[in-house]
Amino acid sequence: LHEFASVAVRVCKDDAYGPADEETDMTHRVALGIDIGGSGIKGAPVDLVEGRFLQERMKIETPQPSTPQAVAAVVGQIAEQFIDDLPADAPIGITIPGVVQHGVVRSAANIDPSWLDCPGQDLFSEALGRPCLLVNDADAAGVGELRYGAAKGRDGLVVLTTLGTGIGIALLYNGVLIPNAELGHLELNGHDAESQAAASVRRRDDLSFEEWATERLQPYYAHLEFLLWPDLFVVGGGVSRKSEKFLPLLKLRTPIIPATLENAAGIIGAASLTARSARILRSTSTSAALRPCM
To answer: Is 8 left (phi over 0), alpha (psi -120 to 50) or beta?
Structure first.
């Protein structure tokens, strides 16, 4: 992992995933972040100096079915709400619950299957009329916490987990994002881990916080710890607001703390990532798509 991360530093030093650089970050002081979730799509303009919303966020229910064209229409509505108040060159960052490679969505575990191999970044750029950056939702949340939240200033390997409908993972090594770590889908006791340990499972199986922590989260985090030997776990997602009910019950050698940005992390992280990649987005376009979005 450490060898892979050193490669990531070299590959990513000039793009959004690299370590923070003050000169690069201050090219844009405002960006629009939009977070696509299974039940709602949320967005807000972000102050990139302080890592906070400049206006109250807007939320619209995720359309069903959540096809690329239907979601793009809702994203357009949210962007339209704020666009007149943004600088003309303000970049736009968008998250999606799936693997994203070079702007193309490569997995659809928790979204409509029509997203598979969809050139989502180009789709949103065309719908909004300006370059956009499309990133995995957990990766965006991880970057938000790294630059403005619970993981700020932390060296070594930080593993952010988002506990919600599924389990999202962001790996951050010495300030560098290693994208698309789908470790919420590790096999655990013969099952996909998120099907046994996500926050939605606690409600589905009517588990108390103690039962969820000791019977579901404990084996999951212990397995992650064994595989990765991280320096810090950060736990995000809406349930992190109740972290005192379950985090103290976990017995791990790695420090584990709640996220501080809570559900704002994805929006803030997406805005931060797109600001750092704005120059690249203006000069390149996605060409790796296998087929158009349907």
So the answer is: alpha
Closest CA to 137 of 120, 122, 150: 120
State the pTM of this model: 0.87
Give dist(CA 19, CA 243) in Å, integer: 28
Q: How many CB atoms lie within 10 A of CB 148?
A: 23
CA-based nearest residue to 240, from 221, 220, 218, 263:
263
Neighbouring C-beta atoms of residue 53, cutoff 10 Å: 17
78 neighbors 71 (Cβ within 8 angstroms): no
Which tens digit of pLDDT belongs to each residue from 189-227?
899 999 999 999 999 999 999 999 999 999 999 999 999
Token pair 């990765």 is found at: 228
Instruction: Produce one character per residue of 94-111: b if its CB has 16 or more CB atoms within 10 Å, e if not.
Output: bbbbbbbeebbbbbbebb
Secondary structure class of 158 (helix, strand, coil) = strand
d(Cα 113, Cα 227) in Å, to the nearest integer? 30
How far apart, in Å, do the first and last CA atoms of the chain sit? 37
Which band of pLDDT confidence, cut at 50, 70 and 90, is reported for residue 292?
low
What size, in residues, is the chain? Answer: 294
Dist CA 78 CA 72 (whole Å) = 10
Given a contact cutoff of 8 angstroms between Cβ atoms, the answer to whether 272 and 147 are in contact is yes
- The SS3 of residue 124 is helix
